[in-house]
Amino acid sequence: MAPTRKQVAILKVNKAQFGTAVWLNGMKIGEHDGCFTAGYFDVTAALRWSAANDLVIRTGAHPAAVSPTVPAGTDFEKLRWTQGSTTA
């Protein structure tokens, strides 16, 4: 359930590398390509204030998931926190 009803509801996804896409209750809310910045999504129109909500967040798993214009480093430091990666 959502918290107390507000005029605007914003969902923040912190630094999901290789892009983020958000759906709420079957409605695509938007995408954020930034790998090193937070994505902010206005979920007001899709949010059910008095019922359960279904939230889906897709994060990229590889630098090829974003356009070549998006900064998407793959140095050793990021191997430990990039989703889907493994370390030996």
Textual characterization of the structure:
The protein has 88 residues and is mainly beta. It is built from 1 helix and 5 strands; from the N terminus they run E-E-E-E-E-H. It has one helix at 76-79; strands spanning 10-13, 20-24, 27-32, 39-42, 55-59. The strands form 2 sheets. It has a 3-stranded antiparallel beta sheet with strand order 3-2-5, with no helix packed on it. It has a two-stranded antiparallel ribbon with strand order 1-4. A hairpin with a 2-residue loop joins strand 2 and strand 3 (27-32).
Strand content: 25-35%
SS-based structural class?
A: mainly beta
**Mean pLDDT across all residues, rounded?**
80
* Record field, number of beta strands: 5
- Named CATH architecture: Sandwich
* CATH level-4 homologous superfamily: Galactose-binding domain-like
Major sheet attributes: 3 strands, antiparallel
Q: What overall geometry do the principal axes of the alpha carbons give?
A: elongated
As residue ranges, the low-confidence spans are none
Give a short overview.
The protein has one helix and five strands. With 88 residues, the protein is mainly β. It has one domain (10-79): Galactose-binding domain-like (Jelly Rolls), CATH 2.60.120.
What's the layout of helices and strands?
Blueprint: E1 10-13, E2 20-24, E3 27-32, E4 39-42, E5 55-59, H1 76-79
Labels describing this entry:
27% strand; three-stranded antiparallel beta sheet; 5 strands; mainly beta; 5% helix; Jelly Rolls; two-stranded antiparallel ribbon; 88 residues
